[in-house]
Sequence to fold (493 residues):
Amino acid sequence: MDIERRCSWCGKPFIAHNFGTRYCSPSCRRDAKRSNAKKVNAVEGTTKCQVPEIGLIGNKPFLSPKDVAILLGTTSTSVYRYIYQGIIKAVKLSENRIVIRRSDLDSLFDNAPSFKKKKYGRKTESEYYTMREIIEKFGISRKAVRTRINKYNIPIVFEGGNSFFPKKVVNEKFAALTETVSDSDYYTIPQIMEKFGMSHSAVLNYVKRHNISRKTILRKVYYSREEIDKLKDPLKDEKYYTYPQLKQIYGLSKDQISYYTRAYHLTTAKEGKFTLIAKDEFDAIMRHRGNDGRIEKNDSIEDATIDALLKRKEEERQARIPEGYVSIEQIADKYAMTVKHVQNITRAMNIKEKKSIGGYNYFPSEVIEKAFAKYEAKPWVKLWISAKDMEELYLMTPEARRSFAYRHKIPTKQVKGKVFYSKEDIDKVKSDDFESRDKYYSVEQIMEKYSVTRTTVYNTVKYYKVRKVHKAQFSYFDKTDIDKIFKEKRGKN
Fold:
């Protein structure tokens, strides 16, 4: 059945197939349904929010808590709370019946005190700061305030949802933030950068390396002007030099300064972690240094003052050596080594029994004798030759020299870092003289006589099991066997 209809939602005409069809499409039906649901919800919400007319209560002399709630524009729960607090008088007639006299409710307003703005005791007594007052007075952030409060356990007073802090405690714990710094006593980082031509990172590394005293105020760091000037400014102290001063005046490295100080036993002093060196003594040494800028320990110094200084310093040091102990220099002299070589050996040995006095190390004599026994010169060796002489005399390369000495256990000794070899032991190994030597060939002799290679010689003597003797590290082969073997070979050929 086809029926002409008009859509109840959009108003367009359409053909319906039954009498109950009101909408031309599913979308119109859906939209109409949503619209009706919104209208129903709006009506229900208005109904729920409606408050009973106050006029319905009339002039009843006795009211229920619900009636009072309507009059006061509040909830029944609040009314019950007022009753329990004693603000509103009520009578409980039964388990479910509570009445309130209308006149008692009116009298609350008749006897009510005048309304005054709430005042906190801290404002009157002026004993507390607010958070904002602390921020403004000390010029720090809210987070910084909280950090210091927690750090120093400053008590907090809570009133009306606000926090207050005791002025006396706050002023005491925050006093450092108001401290002023004198420009004559401290540098800022930009001032150090500008005055000494340093980068920001160089300044930070410098103050950390030298442990410069500092002060932090309001997140700004200040460094001791006195300590920095003492390190940076030359000739400030009348009696002593610092290392930076010597570097600037004489153009020396740190190692050179340390060498002169140790070699000539110069007077030193300690100020904190810094080492100071006597000016007059160091200047006297520098007046007599060589053209190459170095002074060897054994160099003669013409100046009588320097001689007296060295003698006095050496006597003082010898007097400090504990009984049964030896110094680095004594070890070096005994075993003909350099001081640096002895230092390296003793450092590697990690001798726990050593003693340090006045910046110098001393070692037990017994321990040193055992440890350095292998470095002691062999008493039976009469003649020593240097490495260079050994190479020239025996036509060896440096590699051949070292290999030869190792294989044949040639005695050696070191003098001031240079190696010397026992000539007697070398000649003994090199010599091929022994009893019945005329009955044997050396490998070289076989090679020369029969014009064969070294490999052929070794293969032949091994294959035919030629009789042989050993002398040191060398082998010698029976002449009779060798001649017979090579004659037979040539006869066959």
User: Anything to note?
Assistant: Residues 291-302 have pLDDT under 50 and may be disordered. Residues 61-110 form one domain. The CA atoms of residues 434 and 471 lie 8 Å apart. Residues 26-49 form the longest helix (24 residues).
